[in-house]
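Data deposition worksheet. Section B asks for the primary sequence of the deposited chain exactly as it was used as input, without tags or linkers unless they were present during the calculation. Section C holds the resulting structure in token form. Section D is free text for depositor observations; keep each observation to a single sentence. Incomplete worksheets are returned to the depositor.
Section A, Depositor: J.P.
Section B:
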Amino acid sequence: MLRISKLTDYAIIVLGQMAQDAEQTHTAAGLAIATGVAMPTVSKILKRLVKTGILKSTRGARGGYALARPPDRTSVAAVIYALEGPIALTECEGERGGCEQSPSCHARGGWEVINQAVRAALESVSLADMAATVKPTEAFISLAGLYRKNHHPLSAE
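Section C:
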């Protein structure tokens, strides 16, 4: 089973909350209350996302955290990359340089196609999309159609 970490999952929840009012500066305490994510976890997420440039922080009485870019210009892929590193399902992709089987692996090309499709799907979903109220079936159908249109060898186009 493929999964993102709980920290990344919580980060998407926190960022989705921030995206609903993207112009506002948010406090860690306010985000913890609004999302139900524990305050220490929210603080950890916010600090890491500031370091990677997804958020900006302001000190002072009216300080807090804000999105560095509009929610429609920050992809889910960027958030995952910021918290977990390169998006790849196998060792032969990404910044790690591959596994010891790479020189003789016949499946590598296939995995590269799959990894590219996963990255493209995650890059096509923005924080604005995550903050919007969309039925899961509609979102799935939309992404599945996008994939078939762009990548499926049997597509009509």
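Section D:
The mean pLDDT is 81.
Residues 6-85+124-151 form a domain with the Arc Repressor Mutant, subunit A fold (CATH 1.10.10.10).
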